[in-house]
Design brief:
single chain; 89 residues; mainly alpha; Methane Monooxygenase Hydroxylase, Chain G, domain 1
């Protein structure tokens, strides 16, 4: 436990930020799972909607600094490639 008042506050704020980050990353995982489930079912409309939601979630997370910008871009590109491959079948 910190002895300095500012260190105590920093500890509290860091914990709040950590909780926010955990929540946001969990939401991203859920969106990704929804996308993969949609692609597994073969439903193009559901997959497209899930991709849009996933892409939007990645952009928001990158904007807020929860994940790196290039990480969001990479994940969107991989998901789009999978979606395109599904559409080609």
């Amino acid at each position: 436990m910190p002895n300095i008042k500012s260190a105590e506050k920093r500890m509290r704020t860091s914990e709040k930020a950590r909780q926010r980050n955990v929540e946001a990353k969990s939401k991203l995982k859920t969106l990704r799972r929804n996308l993969l489930d949609g692609m597994a079912s073969g439903d193009a409309d559901q997959s497209q909607a899930a991709y849009r939601a996933y892409s939007s979630g990645l952009d928001k997370a990158a904007k807020r600094g929860i994940i790196a910008k290039n990480s969001a871009i990479r994940k969107k590109n991989r998901a789009a490639a999978q979606l395109k491959q599904l559409a080609a079948k």
